[in-house]
């Protein structure tokens, strides 16, 4: 088994909208990857496995998803152009699900590999076709986008009996924070976590070189051997 790079043109229902640089648009089309399993994981580019994981880390034996609920919450009020794009996208999902299920969602999700069910994603693409089309046609993030792969997928799976809250062993580190060096050192010595996220929250130009050196050194120590698919 190897790694296959998938071109956006292979998965977008309407390739005429390409190119897009909007992660929310791309995530809304991942379930269309040819040959994709019915159960799969979505990882952001700042998420890593600390140790080998098994399907039971993310799914129950009957295929039900373990959801990585976070104590952080989606803000109140209407979407605003000046707020973070994921906040607006979560609010838009809340409106859709409240209209259909009479449930007011509040929870965000932790920064982990996100378990997915392809059949759920296909249902969502059909049920919320207009919203999915608008998001996938959005070249850059916009206040009217939806968060398909987490807020919508996870809550819809929960409401339709295909997901339950789960527990995850993870570490989240803001690599720009003053405590980042100490937290990275602790993570390096800690083998009890399954995954970790190194989130670049807001690196300014003045600190970019320092943060880059910090993260690069940490990753070289954590993963000293290249995989068979890495280029030199």
Detailed description of the structure:
The chain has eight helices and nine strands. The longest helix has 17 residues, at 85-101. Helix 7 (180-189) packs parallel to helix 8 (208-222). Strand 8, helix 7 (180-189) and strand 9 form a beta-alpha-beta unit. The protein is globular. It has two domains: 8-46 and 62-165, no CATH class; 170-222, no CATH class. With 232 residues, it is α/β, with parallel strands linked by helices.
Draw up the topology in text.
Layout lengths: L7 H4 L11 H5 L11 E4 L4 E3 L15 E3 L1 E5 L11 H17 L5 E3 L4 E4 H10 L1 H8 L11 H12 L3 E3 L4 E5 L5 H10 L5 E5 L8 H15 L10
Parallel strand pairs: 3-7, 8-9
Antiparallel strand pairs: 1-6, 2-9, 4-5
Helix pairs in contact: 3-6, 7-8
Features:
35% helix, alpha/beta, two-stranded antiparallel sheet
Strand content: 15-25%
| Helix percentage range | 25-40%
* SSE run: HHEEEEHEEHHHEEHEH
Low-confidence stretches: none
Task: Compute the separation of the termini in Å.
Answer: 20 Å
Average pLDDT level? 95
Apparent shape: globular
Backbone CA Rg: 18 Å
Structural class per helix/strand content? alpha/beta
Largest pleated sheet: 3 strands, mixed
How many individual β-strands? 9
For the biggest β-sheet, the strand order reads 2-9-8
How many helix segments?
8
Number of domains: 2
Family: Belongs to the stealth family.
Domain Stealth protein CR4 conserved region: 186-231
Domain Stealth protein CR3 conserved region: 110-157
InterPro entries: Stealth, Stealth_CR2, Stealth_CR3, Stealth_CR4
């Amino acid at each position: 088994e190897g790694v296959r790079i998938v071109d956006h043109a292979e998965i977008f229902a309407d390739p005429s909208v390409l190119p897009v640089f909007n992660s929310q648009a791309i995530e809304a089309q991942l379930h269309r990857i040819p040959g994709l399993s019915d159960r799969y994981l979505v990882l952001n580019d700042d998420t890593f496995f600390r140790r080998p994981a098994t399907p039971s880390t993310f799914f129950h034996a009957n295929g039900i998803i373990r959801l990585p609920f976070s104590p952080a919450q989606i803000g109140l009020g209407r979407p605003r152009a000046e707020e973070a794009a994921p906040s607006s996208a979560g609010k838009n999902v809340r409106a859709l699900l409240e209209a259909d299920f009479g449930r007011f969602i509040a929870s965000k999700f932790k920064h982990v590999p996100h378990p997915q069910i392809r059949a759920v994603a296909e249902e969502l693409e059909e049920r919320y076709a207009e919203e999915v089309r608008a998001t996938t046609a959005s070249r850059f993030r916009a206040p009217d986008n939806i968060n398909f792969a987490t807020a919508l997928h996870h809550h819809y799976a929960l409401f339709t009996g295909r997901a339950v809250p789960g527990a995850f062993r993870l570490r989240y580190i803001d690599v720009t924070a003053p405590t980042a060096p100490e937290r990275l050192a602790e993570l390096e010595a800690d083998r009890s976590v399954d995954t970790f996220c190194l989130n670049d929250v807001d690196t300014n130009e003045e600190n970019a070189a320092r943060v880059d050196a910090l993260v690069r050194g940490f990753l070289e120590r954590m993963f000293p051997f290249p995989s068979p698919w890495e280029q030199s």
